[in-house]
Amino acid sequence: MDNCVVEVKGVSKVYGKTIKTVALDKLDLGFKTGSFNAIIGESGSGKSTLLNIMGTLDRPTKGDVIINGVSTKNMSKGRLDDLRNETLGFVFQFHYLLPEFTALENVLMPYRIAKGKADKKSQERAKEILSLVGLEKVENNLATNMSGGQQQRTAIARALMNQPKIILADEPTGNLDSQTTDSIYQLFRRINQELGTTFVIITHDRRVAEKADRIIEILDGRISLDIVK
Amino acid sequence: MKLAFDIALRFLKSSKAQTALIVLGIAIGVSVQIFIGSLITGLQKSLVDKTVGSAAQITVSPKEDGDFILAPQAKIKTIKAASPDEIIHPVAVIQGPAIVKTADQSTTIVMRGFDWDAAQGIYKLTDRLVKGKLGTNENDVILGKDLSENLGVKIGDTIEMLTPSGKTGNFLVTGFFDLQVKSLNESWILTNAGTAQAFLETGEGVSQIEMQVSDVFAADEVAMLVEQRLKDNTLVVSNWKAENEALLSGLSGQTASSLMIQVFVLISVVLGIASVLAISVVQKSRQIGILKAMGMHNLKASLVFLSQGFLLGILGAFVGIGLGIGLSWSFATFVTNPDGSSLVPFYIDWHFIGISAGIAIAASTLAALIPAIRVSKLDPMEVIKNG
User: Fold this and answer.
1) Is the CATH code 3.40.50.880 the one for domain A4-96+164-228?
2) Would the ipTM clear 0.95, i.e. be above it?
3) Contact between chains at A81 and B290 (C-beta distance less than 8 A)
4) Domain map of chain A by residue range?
5) Beta strand pairing status for A36-41 and A198-202?
6) B chain contacts of residue A109, beta-carbon cutoff 8 Å
């Protein structure tokens, strides 16, 4: 598929050795650069597995994941780490901020993983992102001294720090109230439009999914629905 | 590296009580090491000093009884050249037996004569003189404290002595000395070189050449060098180590047992740190998982825990040095003999303390290796799946 920033080709994932459970079954899927996509499905349908495989956190049993036109099949662990750091941003249901660090320091973390020290330019960029997500006033708060919504916004800001091509979000608003959920999706949309970042969001909330450009439904490890608006 | 170090520092700061506990554990280990090490070293130093500190540590004497070393100053020069840095306070000694006769009794003594200045290095006679002065005139002598009491002699008295060859002489008592060894205080009469040479009829010769060494435990090696340098079959070179084997084996037994204690203290410290850090890996697995998901390499994640071990080691070592020195000082100050002097003198060996601190830091870092390996194996998927 042309113009795809991330692509899965014939991906299968089987768990267990004696009793085999097929989580994904020969899946072919590609996401266009700058698109805003939602993956829906029942619990245990394989959508999180798919996201983790696309994010190179997990390896497929069969098939290949192509990111930015490069196959990840034979990449070493270290090279995959670098690829995640440079190209991908993650937002999970739980924020996973480092409680020992402030919001600003958490946002800087992906940059520091790559470069070691945060220079002035990167600090300014982190502050810009924090103001983009509306957290300029709490940038020096420890992660533990923020509300749930603020923590998730910090996690989103962190995902954006290294200007990733793709943001993979797994139930990013699963722990938030409906008002905060709306504001987070509006934020995703804005980032998608302003920065051209590709979004792949897993959600079980059909109302949220309907706001996406493309909705993919996974059922028993296969694509059961693929609607492009 | 910098990031791993920063994260390690934050992890330690965020759980202050846990950090303080490990630091205290390491500090106690280091302080016990320093305390026991200093105690044993201090004890040994004082024991060796008391035993051979004021005595000849190497002696060069003629093989045949009754022979003398002629031209002693030339011999001293040759001896000194054998090991110029090690050999100190060489002195030519004229000695021989004699009988002291008083009005109501007579007793066998050893007359020893030497140049007072040259003998000061080994015997420190100016400090050991408890009464009177060193006699520099012909036939001036000083007596051991106990001998003077036994004979009932006072300063200014004249005593008569008789050599085995039958020569007699009268000597003026100018002082009493105390070498803190009763047998010597009872049997030695010291005099200047000229008096001894004339009375014992040695001519220009001397009975033996005595010396000390900078490192008392190297006495046997230095003695061998002296022997090689002298190349003289008529002379015998002896050293204190060969003559005090029982003391030496006691000392080495002490060193070995102190080493054993220190090794076990070290092992318990290492196990303590390793177990607390292993718990800390579980506590911080969420943070490590997300750092890895964001692209942190396994090695860097491991470095976080190695840095923690290193930092804990440094902190523990510093606190431990303070505690250990304090403990040693307290022991030396408050545990005393009935006369108020320290039972074991306060002794600080910075070299030993440096080694103890270095070992503690290295051991702490090493103890963090097991948690560090666990961290490198931690799969971010596990953390993300299980929240």
Assistant:
1) no
2) no
3) no
4) 4-96+164-228
5) parallel
6) 291, 294
